[in-house]
Amino acid sequence: MRLDIIAALPRYFDSVFDNAIYRRATESGLFRVEVHDLRDFGKGTYRQIDDYAYGGSAGMVLMAEPLSACIENLKSQRSYDDIIYLSPDGEVFNQHLANRLSLCQNLLLICGHYKGIDQRIRDLYVTREISIGDYVLSGGEIAAAVLTDAVLRLIPGVMGDESSALTDSHQDGLLSPPVYTRPAEFKGLKVPEVLLGGNDKAIREWLHEQALERTRERRPDLWEQWGDG
Ligand code: ADE
Questions:
Q1: Within a domain: residue 162?
Q2: Closest-lying ligand 1 atom to the alpha carbon of residue 140
Q3: Which residue out of 60, 85, 87 has the highest number of ligand 1 atoms within 8 Å of its CB and is therefore the one to mutate?
Q4: Which of the listed residues 101, 123, 152 is the one where a domain comes to its end?
Q5: Contact 108, 140 (CB under 8 A)
Q6: What is the pLDDT of residues 52-107, one digit of tens each?
Q7: 28 and 108 part of one domain
Q8: 118, 67 in Cβ contact below 8 A?
């Protein structure tokens, strides 16, 4: 997968991609990310990328021209499965959407800032708008980092242990069961007997029951959907 990210604060991603999973994914050729500085497409001495909103509402808006120039430049090099604008107005991101995006070849992410981006960019280029939750962040960079992380770990071969992404919370519509590691007893609390016994079938059943119980208790919304599915 190739991911292009257009951002007003490109340096934000320096630390985000400074980790072993990302390095392994890029070194093995499974994933490539390029962050594009929107300011490179701004005009004038100050390479302006934002301006006041028409109509007098407070806050700055990312201008159409630099965004369009950057998008056109990228589109002339490859075609994108989706051009995604990260915005609190978008469809709410979840594991199902992460799974779908992980199957794409080329994705372009646009990070908003201030009051957002000129509506005409949304009308002309954006094919999907995604929110990472019902709250407002100061910029789309954090949302793009969240989306990238969730999608990257689903690309086959990226995670060391292939099965680990498949057993994540939400992957089958359920929360994950509890996990334990050594020691077998800690501050008087023992690891459940079944996990120490080596009976694979019993362990699988126990884990599934725990996942069901956790989901029923903590996320009645997911539990209802799971029952329906
Ligand atoms: N930009 C600002 N807030 C956001 C959110 N909740 N999700 C995605 N992008 C955003």
A1: no
A2: 1
A3: 87
A4: 152
A5: no
A6: 999 998 999 999 999 999 999 999 999 999 999 999 999 999 999 999 999 999 99
A7: yes
A8: yes
